[in-house]
Amino acid sequence: MFDALIIGGGVSGMSCALVLGSAQNKSFVTGKKIGIFAHQKSSSLQDALFNNAYGIPPGKLGSELLSESIEHLSKSYPHITQIQNEKVIRIEGEAPDFTVFTNKSSYKTKIIVVGIGSANTFAIEGLTQYVIPHQKALPEKQRIQLKNEDHKVAEGIYVTGTLAGWRSQLAIAAGSGAAVATDILTLWNNGTETHAHDSIR
Ligand SMILES: Cc1cc2nc3c(=O)[nH]c(=O)nc-3n(C[C@H](O)[C@H](O)[C@H](O)COP(=O)(O)OP(=O)(O)OC[C@H]3O[C@@H](n4cnc5c(N)ncnc54)[C@H](O)[C@@H]3O)c2cc1C
Q1: What distance in angstroms lies between residue 189's CA and the mean position of ligand 1's atoms?
Q2: What is the pLDDT, as a whole number, of residue 41?
Q3: Which atom of ligand 1 has the smallest separation from the CA of 41?
Q4: Using 50, 70 and 90 to split pLDDT, how confident is the model at 40?
Q5: Residue nearest to atom 38 of ligand 1 (CA)
Q6: Neighbour-count burial for 113-134, b at 16+ CB within 10 Å, e otherwise
Q7: Which InterPro entries does the UniProt entry name for this protein (predicted)?
Q8: What are the backbone angles phi and psi of residue 167, rounded to the nearest 5°?
Q9: Which of 7, 11, 133, 187 pairs as cysteine with 173 (C-beta 3.0–4.6 A)?
Q10: What is the maximal distance between C-alpha atoms in the chain?
């Protein structure tokens, strides 16, 4: 049983995983099992080139970020389970007992984070009832989002990145994933606000 399972290994999903991973030494995170479906085939990053994203050197290719983020997560936070090459197709159950089905296997989790982008090909059975037209994209682009309040879709289900209704910019997607991570950490800390910082001091 995972405590939190992130669907989507793009900008927002990886950002969420990194912040959750970095909180490993907090007592309320001890023993928590966290995973991410590091599926990347349909990521917006595949064709992107970044000259305007905070902290990222200009000229950086999105395809480089895809492989570097996987390496970053596995080197810095090896306790986070990365599930490679599996596409999520269905979700069953309700909080805190979801089953996530992929094209190859199934996994149990208490919390689901979905960050799979805003393409209208969205087809995860069990989540389609939350799909609405994207509120900030041009209607002719036919983007979609999941209906949410401050990233929360339903009890135990969070959405991140463009699928949460944000405009398509790397920094926004990364911030959205990080925001959900801190919401989950706060939940695990019995509702007392928390975040994850490192310092040279
Ligand atoms: C060509 C292009 C150029 C861009 N240039 C810029 C730029 O210059 N500056 C800027 O700030 N932003 C730019 N962007 C936007 C930026 O890349 C996106 O805003 C950002 O990637 C969105 O993050 P996300 O997490 O919502 O989605 P993504 O990063 O697309 O991640 C979604 C992830 O979900 C995975 N996934 C999808 N379906 C499933 C499934 N069923 N099961 C499991 N995993 C699944 C995908 O494989 C992918 O890894 C550009 C985008 C594109 C397409």
Answers
A1: 30
A2: 85
A3: 47
A4: confident
A5: 116
A6: bbbbbbeeebebebbeebbeeb
A7: FAD/NAD-bd_sf, FAD/NAD-binding_dom
A8: -70, 155
A9: 11
A10: 51
Q: What distance in angstroms lies between residue 92's CA and the mean position of ligand 1's atoms? A: 25
Which residue segments constitute the domains of the chain, with CATH numbers given? 4-188 (3.50.50.60)
Q: The pTM is what?
A: 0.98
* Whole-number Å distance between alpha carbons of 196 and 198: 7
Query: How many angstroms separate the CA atoms of 88 and 101, rounded?
Result: 6
Confidence of residue 51 (pLDDT cuts 50, 70, 90): very high
Query: What's the average model confidence in pLDDT over 108-133?
Result: 97
Q: What residue's CA is closest to ligand 1, atom 3?
A: 48
Pocket test for ligand 1, best of 16, 45, 85 (most atoms within 8 A of CB): 45
The number of CA neighbours under 13 Å toward the Cβ of 31 is 3
Mean predicted confidence (pLDDT) in 114-123:
95
For residue 102, count CB atoms less than 10 angstroms from its CB and return exposed for 0-12, middle for 13-18, buried for 19 or more: middle
| pLDDT recorded at residue 43 | 85
Query: 62 is written with which tokens?
Result: 């999105």
Which residues does ligand 1 sit against, CB inside 6 Å? 7-13, 37, 39-45, 47-48, 50, 52-53, 62, 87-88, 115-117, 124, 161-163, 168-171, 173
Whose Cα sits closest to atom 1 in ligand 1?
48
